[in-house]
Amino acid sequence: MKRVCAVGAGLSGAVIARELAERGYKVLVIDERQHIAGNCHTERDAETGVMIHRYGPHIFHTADERVWSYVNRFGEMMPYVNRVKATVNGKVYSLPVNLHTINQFFGTHMAPAEARAFIEARARMDIEDPQSFEEQALRFVGEELYNAFFRGYTRKQWGVEPSQLPASILKRLPLRFNYDDNYFNHPYQGMPKHGYTQIVAAILDHANIELRLGCAYEDVGESFAHVFYSGPLDRFFRYDLGRLGYRTLDFEEIRGHGDMLGTAVMNYPDEDVPFTRISEHKHFSPWEAQNFAETVCFREYSRACGAGDIPYYPVRLLDDKKMLAQYEERARMQTGVTFVGRLGTYQYLDMDVTIGLALDVAAGFQAARS
């Protein structure tokens, strides 16, 4: 039996490799980077000892009990609640927008029912079927909160006007009329005690899996029974229809003593602030944060992804969707290749969704050969 290949040692490639390895397949996992775990790669900072999310914050949250059980099989998940703050016009607020945010922003002391009526009076109820991010936000929270918390941040993050982005981006963000500042609604939330890289390493730890780092798919001469490709979809076809649009991130490191932010993430929606947020990484591990006298933070800047950059977020504007449809049609015509993951499918996928889809792909592949 020829072995199969998983292109990319992130969550998609690792999970598919492990599932097939346990079913008796020999699997080669390759990644052109010198480390595993893709963009959720974590490592101890040599100077401070803090667990660093090397490619920006990753918080695990899910409603999928199967996925939650899966990650706990390979690593210990510690309790973690994502509580985000935002500095707007020199004042600090709580996100997502909740009753505390509303009362603080408008200088009121409303009860839940009063706040709901107050926001509904400001919401653009005439927008019955929001199509854009801007329309959804105006329909959602009204002009004042939209301009304060969403407009500037969105323009910096995506590099386009909010009126050009789909409404679906905002539909994931809650509006609460109580004091709950948990950023996510999912019942299972946590952070791996020893980092995401340890979990991915445990997933890849199987006798039937060979791991090859610093190796690009284009440089592998071997043929395989099947390839699971989690690299960029347009790259697989050598960009011959053009490049799909992505946003990439630049990180500016800040080191200091003690506690700099007092929280894990501080957003900066003001348009005159060039970065989108600052993250203080020791707060992503609250069970050990007090152990570190020194701290390390990262300012995060978003910009258009160039040819040599790491792609983070698919933009999916109108031109991208047209090009994507052509690439997807070509992908469907491929035999012996399954396109998986955030880059292979050109869509934003949370970690839990990525794992769930990888489990489904592996099961489907096995079932088709049974």
Automatic annotation (TrEMBL):
UniProt-recorded Gene Ontology molecular function terms: UDP-galactopyranose mutase activity
Gene3D superfamilies: NAD(P)-binding Rossmann-like Domain (3.40.50.720)
E.C. code: 5.4.99.9
Needed co-factor(s): FAD
Protein keywords: FAD, Flavoprotein, Isomerase
Domain spans labelled UDP-galactopyranose mutase C-terminal: 148-348
Membrane-traversing stretches: none
InterPro entries membership: UDP-GALP_mutase (IPR004379), UDP-GalPyranose_mutase_C (IPR015899)
Family membership: Belongs to the UDP-galactopyranose/dTDP-fucopyranose mutase family.
Protein name stated in the entry: UDP-galactopyranose mutase
Originating organism: Rhizobium halophytocola
